[in-house]
Amino acid sequence: MSKAIEVAGLKKSFHNRKGKRMTVEAVRGVSLSVESGEIFGFLGPNGAGKTTTLRMLTTLLPIDEGKAVVAGFDLKKQQKEVRRSIGYVGQSGGADLAATGMENLILAGRLYGMGRKEAQKRADELAELLDIRELLPRLTKTYSGGQKRRLEVALGMVQTPKVLFLDEPTTGLDPQNRANLWEQIRRLRNAGTTIFLTTHYLDEADMLADRLAIMDYGLIVAQGTPNELKQQISNDVIRIKLKTEQLTDGDAIKKLLKSEPYIHEIRMEGDSIHLYVDDSAKAGPHVFALLERGNMEIDTISFSRPSLDDVFLKQTGRLLRDTGKGGVA
C-alpha cells in the first residue's frame, strides 16, 4: 500500500513580536506515515499540538524544521500541488450560512475552476455520497449542527481530494449526529479517500481509525492500530474511586496495594486509582478485602479491559482529557 502522508522530524515554534521563542514549542519532532485509503486518527488532548501539525500538513502554517510529503508532493517545495490534492475541514467550518447548501457546493466547485455544469454534477455526487440531498435547497443557517457538519465535509470533498483532513469534526455534536457523521466518514474511506482525522474523543478514534497516533505536548507518544496499542497493556484494569477525604495520601494507598502479587501496576490519576491485574474477576474480592482492612471506603469501582485511555495513561502518566495546559492546539 502506498503512502498518502510521510512526515519526518516536523517542528513548529511560535515567536513573539520581538522575535524571541515562546517557552512552549507547539510541535517538537513529529514523525509518522499514513497509508493510502485509510482513516488515520490523530489523538490527543487540547493543547497537544494536533491542530498545529494539521495546519502545517495543509500548508496553512510554514514548517520550521523537518520534511513532509503529502499526496506525493513535497510540502515545502510543491505547496500548490499539495493544495490541489487535499481537502480540509477546520473546526469552525466554512459554509456560507446565508446561502443554500447547493449554492455553497456549486460556488466551491467554481472556485476550483469547474464550469457550472461540472460543479452541479459534483454537488449531486456528494449529495448522494453524504446523504444530504434533502438539505441542499435550504439555507445553511437552518441546518442542525450535524447537518451543517456534513455539508462542510462535502465542501472539503468538492475537488475529489486524495487526502481529506478533518479537524475535530464531531466537536459539539450530540451522540446521534456523531454516529451519523462517523458513517459518512466511513463511506468516504470506502470510496477510496484517505482521511486524516484529529480528535480528542477516545471512542471516535477507537471506532473510526484504522491506525492512529497519540500526541502529547508536541510529541508522538504511541502509534499503531487501536488493538495493537491496547494490547501493550496485557492486564485487566480495576478503577477505584475512594471517598474524597481518603485520597489525600497517595503514597499510603500505593504502599497498601503494591505488595500484592496479582497487582502488576498502580497508577493514580486525580480521584481515581488504576490497578492493572491478571484477572479482575479473581483480583476484585482481594482488593475489596485489602481496602477494608486498611479502613478505606470505596465510592465506586469498575472492571474492564484496557482502553485507549489506559494506553495514554501508561505513556504519559495522566488520562487523556482536556488539561488546560500546553497553550497551543
What does this structure look like?
- With 329 residues, this protein is α/β, with parallel strands linked by helices.
- The protein folds into two domains: 3-223, Rossmann fold, CATH 3.40.50.300; 235-305, Alpha-Beta Plaits.
- The protein has helices at residues 50-57, 79-85, 101-111, 116-129, 145-156, 175-190, 202-208, 226-231, 250-258, 280-293, 308-316, and strands at residues 3-12, 27-35, 39-43, 65-70, 73-74, 86-89, 163-167, 194-199, 211-216, 219-224, 236-242, 263-269, 272-277, 298-304.
- The strands form three sheets. The protein has a six-stranded mixed beta sheet, with helices on both faces. Strands 2-1-4-5 form a four-stranded antiparallel beta sheet, covered by helices on one side. A four-stranded antiparallel beta sheet has the order 12-13-11-14, with helices on both faces.
- Strand 9 (211-216) and strand 10 (219-224) form a beta hairpin.
- Helix 3 crosses helix 4 and helix 5 (145-156) runs parallel beside helix 6 (175-190).
- Residues 322-328 have low confidence and may be disordered.
